[in-house]
């Protein structure tokens, strides 16, 4: 397991050396130019239209999008079912 983690870390450093960086997602406002929404998540932890969960990491080559991040976007809870 340690060997796999070390390989992944070094591979990430090589990608960064060549200008490939991950798209920041969780807690960021949903941006259709960088994120692909695959669903909505009812949560009070995040404001509406903010990325609440990242399902697949996205990547940029300098400022050009290579792959959008697949994300779940926050929406306000409908209501408390116990009331």
From TrEMBL:
The cellular location(s) given in this protein's UniProt record come to:
Cytoplasm
The Gene Ontology biological process annotation of the record reads:
protein folding
Which key words tag this protein in UniProt?
Answer: Chaperone, Cytoplasm, Stress response
Q: Which InterPro entries match?
A: GrpE (IPR000740), GrpE_head (IPR009012)
Return the GO cellular component terms, semicolon-separated: cytoplasm
Provide the GO MF annotations for this entry.
adenyl-nucleotide exchange factor activity; protein homodimerization activity; protein-folding chaperone binding; unfolded protein binding
Principal localization reads cytoplasm
Checking Pfam families in the record gives: GrpE
Question: Which domain of life does the protein's organism represent?
Answer: Bacteria
| Presence of the UniProt keyword Cytoplasm in the record | yes
Q: Which family does it belong to?
A: Belongs to the GrpE family.
Q: What does this protein do?
A: Participates actively in the response to hyperosmotic and heat shock by preventing the aggregation of stress-denatured proteins, in association with DnaK and GrpE. It is the nucleotide exchange factor for DnaK and may function as a thermosensor. Unfolded proteins bind initially to DnaJ; upon interaction with the DnaJ-bound protein, DnaK hydrolyzes its bound ATP, resulting in the formation of a stable complex. GrpE releases ADP from DnaK; ATP binding to DnaK triggers the release of the substrate protein, thus completing the reaction cycle.
Q: How does it assemble?
A: Homodimer.
Q: What is this protein called?
A: Protein GrpE
> Lineage of this protein's species?
Bacteria, Pseudomonadati, Thermodesulfobacteriota, Desulfuromonadia, Desulfuromonadales
């Amino acid at each position: 397991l340690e060997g796999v983690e070390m390989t992944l870390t070094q591979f990430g450093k090589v990608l960064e050396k060549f200008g490939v960086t991950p798209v920041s997602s969780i807690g960021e406002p949903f941006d259709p130019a960088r994120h692909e929404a695959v669903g909505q998540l009812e949560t009070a932890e995040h404001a509406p239209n903010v990325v609440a969960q990242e399902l697949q990491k996205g990547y940029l080559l300098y400022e050009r999008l290579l792959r959008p991040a697949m994300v779940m976007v926050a929406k306000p809870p409908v209501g408390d079912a116990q009331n």
